[in-house]
């Protein structure tokens, strides 16, 4: 591009695991985090947090209770826990919760005074075209409820 950027340091990671409690109940835990450092950071290397996206691409991180890409920061550390209940063969409900710290200063990343949290519920159906889901979520520090509709798989 016409702008000259200096070198940056970018590190991001995601870990998720599922635990089967019964044939109908699962617990899904996850931790997502990253940091970027440099003098002139291109926008595509910042961390955009919010929404219920499944895939973490570069710095795109899901966060229940925030709108899609609502927060932009240099550092993020998020942990979440979901309880998935399957009622019938293809019908399920997921209770979701997460908490994290989103900051521009790396030294503040593990400060517990600036935590952001959110919670929500998802109702879904596994159809022949993929999952059809409706979610409602909220962040404790914001007003209103966020809705999300997904039809099919992410590609």
Gross morphology is elongated
Helix content: under 10%
Describe the largest sheet.
Answer: 7 strands, antiparallel
Distance from first to last alpha carbon: 28 Å
Tally the beta strands: 10
Instruction: Give the integer mean of the pLDDT values.
Output: 88
- Helix tally equals 0
| Contiguous runs where pLDDT drops below 50 for at least 5 residues | none
Name the helix and strand elements from N-terminus to C-terminus, one letter apiece.
Answer: EEEEEEEEEE
Radius of gyration: 17 Å
Structural class: mainly beta
Strand content: over 45%
Give me the side-by-side strand order of the main sheet.
1-2-6-7-8-9-10
Brief summary:
This protein has 155 residues and is mainly beta.
What is the element layout, followed by pairings?
Elements: E1 9-20, E2 25-37, E3 47-49, E4 60-61, E5 71-73, E6 75-86, E7 91-103, E8 116-127, E9 130-139, E10 146-151
Parallel strand pairs: 3-4
Antiparallel strand pairs: 1-2, 2-6, 3-5, 6-7, 7-8, 8-9, 9-10
Descriptive notes:
With 155 residues, this protein is mainly β. The radius of gyration is 17 Å and the shape is elongated. The model has no long low-confidence stretch (mean pLDDT 88). It starts with 8 loop residues before the first strand and ends with a strand. Helix content is 0%, strand content 55%. It has a 7-stranded antiparallel beta sheet, with no helix packed on it. A 3-stranded mixed beta sheet has the order 4-3-5, with no helix packed on it.
Descriptive terms for the model:
155 residues, mainly beta, three-stranded mixed sheet
């Amino acid at each position: 591009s016409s702008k000259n950027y200096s070198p940056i340091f970018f590190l991001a990671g995601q870990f998720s695991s599922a635990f089967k409690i019964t044939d109908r109940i699962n617990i899904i835990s996850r931790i997502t985090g990253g940091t970027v450092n440099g003098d002139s950071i291109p926008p595509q290397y910042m961390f955009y947090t919010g929404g219920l996206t499944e895939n973490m691409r570069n710095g795109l991180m899901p966060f229940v209770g925030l709108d899609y890409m609502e927060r932009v920061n240099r550092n993020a550390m998020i942990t979440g826990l979901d309880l998935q209940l399957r009622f019938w063969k293809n019908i399920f409900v997921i209770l979701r919760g997460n908490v994290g710290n989103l900051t521009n200063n790396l030294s503040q990343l593990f400060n517990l005074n600036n935590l952001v949290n959110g919670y929500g519920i998802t109702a879904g159906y596994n159809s022949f075209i993929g999952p059809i889901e409706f979610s409602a979520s909220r962040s404790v520090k914001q007003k209103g409820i966020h809705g999300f509709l997904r039809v099919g798989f992410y590609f």
